[in-house]
Amino acid sequence: MIVRQAANVLDLLEFFARRGQPATLAEVSAAFGWPRSSTFNILTTLAERGFLYEPRPRAGYYPSPRWMALAQEIAAAEPLPDFAHPLIERLSAETGETAAIVAPAGTQTVFLDVVESPASIRYFAQAGHRLPIHATSSGRALLTQYPKKERLALYRRIDFQRYSETTPLTAEDVEARMAEEAGRGWHSSHAEYSADLAGVAVPLPLGERRLSVVIAGPMFRMQDRMAEIAEILRKAVASATHRPAQR
């Protein structure tokens, strides 16, 4: 169930991120098809709380630095360990593909940190990127860390739509895929959600936190190297997480 008012605020933030410049009430209203009165209420509420400001007279509204300050405070309270970014830098360099650290977000996954492949044809992603938890290797590497009862409850909230010919379409399909993947010690996806993309993922052990590490790239480069990439990934994660000093 989506709370529309909250969704509108988040949509507005993404709108400004894409636009990269201020927008007037009329421009925001036209972009979303919102009534002018509703648009006025959202914009003035955010402005009065200090989350929007007017950079120039009559130029419209733009997000204020308050968003960044809050995000920094939030991130500082639940940081990734010091080894996390060097780990995915190493993995991207060794494999030539995009590497990321991923966390659960309801029925989705969210990328917390990303190092993109240097290749011109690559998996494009950035922090905040979201994917279905059941239809990705990184998602199933997270689901293996859930007690089965919790997984089954989560499946009831998932919209099992078909993204491709390889998308798991039921809870039973996901559980069977996970059982098969557990036998070899790593998770994989072959265009289950994004056409022509493949991924290899493993859990990232870090206390009670549920995280995974994924390496993803185009099928034409990944499909014959899945086992090789999985071995690189497993060794790198084992080496990083067995260091004596962690946060």
UniProtKB/TrEMBL annotation:
Q: What processes in GO biological process is this protein linked to?
A: negative regulation of DNA-templated transcription
Is the keyword Kinase in the record?
no
Q: Which PROSITE patterns match?
A: HTH_ICLR, ICLR_ED
Please provide the record's keywords in A-Z order. Answer: DNA-binding, Transcription, Transcription regulation
> Has keyword rRNA-binding?
no
The residue range of the signal peptide is none
Record domain IclR-ED: where: 66-247
Any one Gene Ontology MF annotation carried by this entry is:
DNA-binding transcription factor activity
UniProt cross-references to Pfam families, sorted A to Z: HTH_IclR, IclR_C
Q: Where is the HTH iclR-type domain?
A: 3-65
Q: What is this protein called?
A: DNA-binding IclR family transcriptional regulator
Q: Which organism is it from?
A: Oceanibaculum indicum
